[in-house]
Amino acid sequence: MTEMEEILAKAGIVEVAKDDGESFWNRYYLERFHKMATRLRCFRQLNKRIFSQVVRVLNAQILEMGCGSGRNVANILKHMQVSENGGRIYAIDISQDSLDLAREELGNPGNVVFQKDNMRNLSFEDESFDVVFDVFAGCYMPHRGWKLGVKEAFRIMKPGGYGYFLYFIHGKKFSSCFRSQVPIELVLHPVGLFWALHLKLIRGLNVWDKFIEKGDVVYPTHDEFVGLVEQNGGLIKIAEKTFLDTCVFVKAQKQ
């Protein structure tokens, strides 16, 4: 039994995946979060903060780890000005269904390469990329798999390159955090809230809380994550808690 199979068997929530988590991800993400994530105001504000900090690089080779349905690929295209400055985005994901959906929704742009890959053991050579994005991707690795994801990010990053990381912080209950946002969303963005509730956002977060309670998913503390980035050669430019102190956003440059 693989590591992911053990996690799913312990949780007793969904069927055991036989493919390193791809089937689980297809069901959990595509059914629960894909259509919701771009509609809630709080998510949009969070993305706005991250992408306001990007350093544009001419002819940049950019990697997005765990691209999901491609919502951040669109942000990278816009804020990195890939079309104007040249360069290319490699959007990777463990889920082929996610990659197919991202390609379809983005219109299969010529300067984006969609590729099935595992961020714990990337197929790219050392120092291949100028910029690496990991926006919540490592958070969904079992146990402390995010340590391998960060290590791989800096392995394939060129010296002087930039990494942008957004991770959940250990000890937070995400379902209760999102419940606290309901009144704000109701007043400021009722359409987004309607879709989030319609797509059973809270139910999905309750499922994930169970994984955390059982220790099958272990998030880093703020200091632990910052230390991990530094250990792998990252010079910290920004390290801040965000989104009700449930997340840590780190911008780092490879020394």
Any idea what the CATH architecture is?
3-Layer(aba) Sandwich
Termini separation comes to 39 Å
Helix % is: 40-55%
The main sheet comes to: 7 strands, mixed
In CATH, what is the homologous superfamily? Vaccinia Virus protein VP39
Radius of gyration: 17 Å
Overall 3D geometry? globular
Walk me through the structure.
The chain is of the alpha/beta class and about 260 residues long. It has a single domain, classed as Vaccinia Virus protein VP39 (Rossmann fold). The protein has 12 helices and 7 strands. It has helices at about 5-10, 20-30, 35, 40-50, 70-80, 80-85, 95-105, 145-155, 175-190, 190-200, 200-215, 220-230, and strands spanning about 60-65, 90-95, 110-115, 130-135, 155-170, 235-240, 245-255. Strands 3-2-1-4-5-7-6 form a 7-stranded mixed beta sheet, sandwiched between helices. Helix 9 crosses helix 10 (about 190-200) and helix 9 (about 175-190) packs antiparallel against helix 11 (about 200-215). The longest helix is centred in the C-terminal third of the chain and has 15 residues, at about 175-190. The chain is globular and about 45 Å long. The model is unreliable at about 10-20 (pLDDT under 50).
